[in-house]
Amino acid sequence: MITFDQINYILSDIFTRYQSLVTALGTVLINRDLNGRVRLILSATVEANTELTDQLQSLLEDVNEQLAPHAWPASRLVLFEDDLEAIKQGSPAFALPDYPNVFVVDRLATETDWQTIEAESATPRVVFFSIKGGVGRSSALAATAWSLAQSGKRVLVLDLDLESPGLSTAILPEEKQPKYGITDWLVEDLVDNGDNVMQDMIASSDLSHDGEILVVPAHGTNPGEYISKLGRVWMPKLQADGSRESWSQRLQRLILQLENKYQPDIVLIDSRAGIDEVASSCITDLGARLILLFAIDGSQTWSGYNILFKHWQRAGVIQKIRERLQIVSGLTPDTDTAHYLEQLRENAWNIFTDTQYDAITAGEIIGDRWNFEESDDTAPHSPWAVHWHRSFTGLQSLHGRLFEIDTKQVDMIFGQVINGIADLSEQDLRD
Q: Which of the residues 60, 95, 153, 328 could staple to 211 if both were Cys, CB 3.0 to 4.6 A apart?
């Protein structure tokens, strides 16, 4: 029985037997459609070459026979197109290993990509992400915003956990919640009404001191038909010239408008947990400088991150994003802490070594190749610890708690995360 996961391996074996033909065909696109069925797309110039098409027939019959049911019938298994680059646009595509002229093109039911890594933004953006919820991610973000504002920074906070919103209640009292939120803007933007809600979707937190915390919630004071709106935020926007702007491109445009208007020193983004469309946009599409990967030591955490890292590895983009990643130990237990962090670091190092670090001597950096000792505290696999504390277990009470709490206690609980992000902000000012 053939399953979807075996498609590329089988095609690689087939292409090895037809290596000279595959080279002669020029660019080859392996189109995996919405149903997981394969078609080959070749240049129209191949169709006019009788010698090549005669040889191609045997390859197509092998593909159909060995990939069934994940292949079209041999008579319909190939398409010839004039512009192969146009065929690739708008869909995730990556080269088949050992075949630089062969590209796998995935047609997906959603725009979740995870492999188009946007260049870093001008204003430093930090994404707080986790595979599973309930790891203290949003509390750490709120405390970080508070601390940065204490030091005089203007911090822009975005609640992009659209399907489980609530971060704004940790930073804003109820009476200061803005009228609209990110979901409202994404829906209104589809009908060119986004500018009319922009000024009423941001509020300044009372927690700001020498600096300022500007908060953009997922929704406004009255969520209204939130579920109906949520079902539309992922929509692409069709422009007057017929071009198509994806939802993540629209989100990028919103953030740029907010940055241009309010000139923050740093942007903190609360991403939805899990490997879904919102998280994909936050991590790969928004040009984050730093991506905090919250982890609780356990099989679910490492299985999820392993899936994500191997996807980047297969797509050939791991080198573009690995320098932005940092493991964070969420809700680090207050008993046997040293042993817990040691075990978490070991498990993180094992996955990073398997999927990200290069096969060079640990501790060396050669060109764009790098590797780290397991014990290296500066390595991305070495966790920044967020310590569990009863005072910070509920977001609803966090706003009042931050009014009462002293800097030393915040530093004790969240210090490594706050200091790491502060260093990023200071580096940006030096640059």
A: 153
**Among residues of the chain, what percentage have pLDDT more than 70?**
94
Whether the pLDDT of residue 186 is over 80: the answer is yes
Q: How confident is the model at residue 405 (pLDDT cuts 50, 70, 90)?
A: low
Q: From CA 216, how far away is CA 85, in angstroms rounded?
A: 38
What's the per-residue H, E or C state across the chain? Answer: CCCHHHHHHHHHHHHHHCHHHHHHCCCEEEEECCCCCEEEEEEHHHHCCHHHHHHHHHHHHHHHHHHCCCECCHHHCEEEECCHHHHHCCCCEEEECCEEEEEEEECCCCCCCCCCCCCCCCCCEEEEEECCCCCCHHHHHHHHHHHHHHCCCEEEEEEECCCCCCHHHHHCCHHHCCCCCHHHHHHHHCCCCCHHHHCCCCEECCCCCCCEEEEECCCCCCCCCHHHHHCCCCCCEECCCCCEECHHHHHHHHHHHHHHHHCCCEEEEEECCCCCHHHHHHHHHCCCCEEEEEECCCHHHHHHHHHHHHHHHHHCCHHHHHHHEEEEEEEECCCCHHHHHHHHHHHHHHHHHHHCCCCCCCCCEECCEECCCCCCCCCCCCCEEEECCHHHCCHHHHHHHHHHCCHHHHHHHHHHHHHHHHHHHHHHHHC
Give per-residue pLDDT as tens, 35-44: 999 999 999 9
Q: Tens digit of pLDDT for each residue in 276-312? A: 878 999 999 999 999 999 999 999 999 999 999 999 9
Rounded Cα gap, residues 71 and 58, in angstroms: 15
| Residue 396 predicted with pLDDT over 50 | no
Q: What fold characterizes domain 125-430? A: Rossmann fold (3.40.50)
The Cα–Cα gap between 185 and 251 comes to 9
170 has pLDDT over 90: no
